[in-house]
Write the structure tokens for this entry.
Amino acid sequence: MNEIKPQVSETLLKYPYKTRQNGATVTVFVPYNCRNHCPFCINKEEYAHPEGFSVDKICDSIRCMDAITPYCDFVFTGGEPFANLKSLQQMLDMIPATHKIYINTTLPVFEFQTADDIVAFTQKNRNKITCINVSRHMQHYVVESNDQLLTRLAVPFRINCVLYKKYPVRDMVPYLERFYRIPGASIQFRFDYTETTPQNLYDTWDDKILHDLKRIAAYTGLDGCRMRCGFHFDYKGMELTYHKTLPYSTIVETDKTNGVTYGILYDILIKQTGAIHSDWDGTVMDVEKYKHVVYEPYDLKWIERCGQHQSHPIMTNQACAVM
Ligand code: SF4
């Protein structure tokens, strides 16, 4: 692996883009808010100023990205994608079947939306949605709907849990026990990505979460790439991953074969206004330049595999939003 340099947004524009086969993941920020206040959220501030938010402009940008990379993954995040099912449907309908679609959500049930409405939405979109990533943190940062709803979803789902600062270690086993009985459940624990650096991304020595997990679940392997990694575990037959990702989506790297320095894109963002960004820090993407992007094989690979659990596929989707 070549040396990884943290990206510096103002210098990125001068580099040609490179990305993986099929294109960078396109993360769509829905133009409406959630009702939660997670302490690690960096999007809340943005949703406080909804001027210029537009479903139509987001749809235009989805069409644009589909035209450039017709096989890329899309991730819907927020805010709360399931807070407005009509608008979410409008955006999903823009995406041809060549793409995988992931949705980050808390599965909100409120006065105008029942669990039945959510179930009906998943039934209607069962051929569109690849997986729903449901936020259920050990500390109760989000308003939760009943776990029974998980058993009724018509599409695959995964539980996402951010282990933030001094998370309650003693609650880990009860947390796992809560979900492992639910058919189809898998869990992804997530390191606070604002704390991730190139130095600690693959660190195993000082990683407290990793040590805590190894005490309660069977370690089965590690996959990863320049940008992110996943430590895999088995808990009583339930797939468990511990995910770490860097807090930016572009890596500047010089290709040793031709001496060219590229801005390598892992995630592209469609903002609430439809603006297309190449990083989480407000860097606007040069769409014309992306039309001439250079492709490389995806560098996500198994780094270590052990135990009897050789059949777990690498999770190709690595939704990066904080949910
Ligand atoms: S992390 Fe997600 S659910 Fe939590 S406040 Fe932010 S947008 Fe809302």
Q: What stands out?
A: Residues 9-305 form a domain with the TIM Barrel fold (CATH 3.20.20).
